[in-house]
Amino acid sequence: MVTRSANKWTESARSKNEKKRTHEEPSPEDVVELDSSEEEFELDGLIDEGSDDDREEEDSEHQQEPEENDKEDTGLEADEESELESDSDAELNRMLAQEEGDDESSESDAPSEPQEETTSLTDKVKNIKIRSYSEGSSSIRETTYSDGKLRLIRPEIDPKYESDDSEKEEFNTVGNIPLSAYEEFPHIGYDINGKRIMRPAKGSALEQLLESIDLPAGWTGLLDRNTGGVKNLTQDELELIRRIQSNELTDETLNPYEDTVEWFSSKVEVMPLSGKPEPKRRFVPSQQEQVKILKLVTAIREGRIVHPDKVKEEKFEDPVYDLWQDAEDNTVDQENNWRAPKLAPPTHEESYNPPEEYLLTEKERKEWEETDPSERRLQLLPQKFTALRKVPGYANNIKEIFERSLDLYLAPRVKQAKLNIDPDSLIPELPSPKDLRPFPIRCSTIYEGHSGRIRALSVHPSGFWLATGADDGTVRVWEVLSGREVFKTTIITDSHKGEDFIECIAWNPAENSGILAIAAGEHVYLIVPPIFGFDIENTGKSKIEHGFGYAKHGNIRKAAKGPSNESDDEDTTEAITKQHTSWFKPTPEQADRGISLVVSMKKVSVIKKISWHRKGDYFVTSSPNAGKTSVLVHQLSRHISQAPFNKSRGVIMDAKFHPFKPQLFVVSQRYIRIYDLQKQVLVKKLVSQARWLASIDIHPRGDNVITASYDKRVLWHDLDLSSEPYKTMRYHQKAVRAVAFHKGGLPLFGSASDDGTVHIFHGTVYDDLMSNPLLVPLKKLTGHRVIQSLGVLNMEWHPREAWVFTSGADGTARLWTT
Fold first, then answer.
1. Using one digit for the tens of pLDDT, what is the confidence trace for 742-762?
2. Would you say residue 8 lies in a domain?
3. What global pTM score does this model have?
4. By the 8 A CB rule, do 241 and 233 touch?
5. CATH number (domain holding residue 500)
């Protein structure tokens, strides 16, 4: 808009100035003014070329357009007009005033009809220059010369200016000086005017900590050299970084998948562009090509043109022979063979001029000659020569070389490859014992009162009572939690002391019976301690006395024999034809001591073990040296005892019923036999690697068995895996007396030994037959004293809690809790 208005003003001024020139010449001041501003005017883009009608309309409206332009122009154009006024308004107004005066006079004198102008536009603007101001004209300063003329000072042009530097204008002028040079000053540099740029204030330590925790968007951790503050990334820079990380284009306006412009095939022509028929030469073979083909065929036949593959073959026609083709590969033998040991260097005795002390005396020389050559200490007789040239030849040289070669031939040296195995890799990865709790770790209660070794103990199914039997002939019942003795009875009197001992005791598994079985010598005593209520005591005694109503003397009905198609190693069960035991009522003296029933064995040695059936009506006893009556099964309800085997297979150490199947486990010195009581056949025979088994315990699920042996071993048998032991553990220092599984559902088992320790293990049995049991050692319990090479004699778990009871040769029983 400024350009158009300036054009109008220029044209009107030129026309009026031409008219004025016909009457009056311009003043020298005007000429000077125009000439002085001639360098400041630019003509490009300021002259509008239009029709004559447009020029007439512009001449008639040139006075109104400046006002309209002021309303329509933007703030930028208003700034340009204010600059024009400040610069040349004085000159332009004076010219316009003179021209207006001339116009008035000319209008009054001029005719009414319009006249055509004969002067050209070039002549009109010949002596007039029009100046245009750019957007940066606001930085032009006005001053005057010494003669008072107007002087315009324009901004200095930076010769190193680049278009990209407009946004990187540096406010701080320190240059390449590092900011560390200003660390001790309150300012960080100087601006363009030489004034200090003060350091921005820093927040407190708490604010700095919060800022370091809550990082703002665009945080870089860098300092701005211009301001000394934190330099953050802008949103455009963050967006650019995000696009680079996302493998996107950095320019969001660019579309990499623009549609292809089919310049030639987009428009399908209906008719051909040319209807000219095809020439005949398109269908006739070319004569020139025929000539070229004949030349190529002739060159191939003459051999001047050869195929590249044939050229390569001809280049390598000469054969290359491998000198070591037939040589044997001895690299392996060379790597595994050791070099022959070198001969020992000669000593002073072998020197041609040895010291006097190395020479033999006449006596030593005579002894050396009489000694056999294989037994001589020296193979060479030391001699002394005055010079090396006087040394004679060695007669045994060839013989010694031959003997050395013979030794090297008959004794080859081979490098044996050692297995480079990390010892830690052989140790299985086991879970931490902290993750396998609960298990007993400390002794919480000690039961004292017996004066001899406590060989037997048993926990009541309710878990409240503990029964112990010792060599002093007494049986005591203790309260588990308090350790208080609630019952005591004497089983072995003074007349039998020294011959019989209380070897084993066992509570009846039925909680409402309260029956305690005690094995001492050749007898089994059944008692009901008066520690329960009237109902339990009455129930237990009635079960004991109920069997006296059955006939049990003489022969009984003979049962059918079992199948006889077994191997020699299998034992068959046979019907019992006579009683092997006698069931007696107690004598008055025994009744006073609390004994309710006495079972006496005939031709039976000492009873070592007692085990109840899960229903509480049957119990089995084992005697090592009783022959075919080593294992007897007793029925409480009928007072009948049976010997299931007609012959014995070794020394029987223990016998137990299966937890829920009609099977009987019989332990001998080296074998474990499993019998089916219904079919009366041998089901399985387990082979142990121990020399003398001591006891056995069966897992509550019935598919795993652990045994203790007197040769310091604990063996774990998996019945579904093999007849051999799955795991053989040897961690005790002396004989292992007892082993026991936890019957309350916890994956725990333990072993007791004569070394005075009890080892607690975690044993998980999986339902998956493909997974082997997991055995993890947990704790080693020590507390029992070793007396006469005897330590812990027995152990048993609490029915529900992760507690274990132990008894030892020191006359104490202990409760170990978590």
1. 999 999 999 999 999 999 999
2. no
3. 0.51
4. yes
5. 2.130.10.10
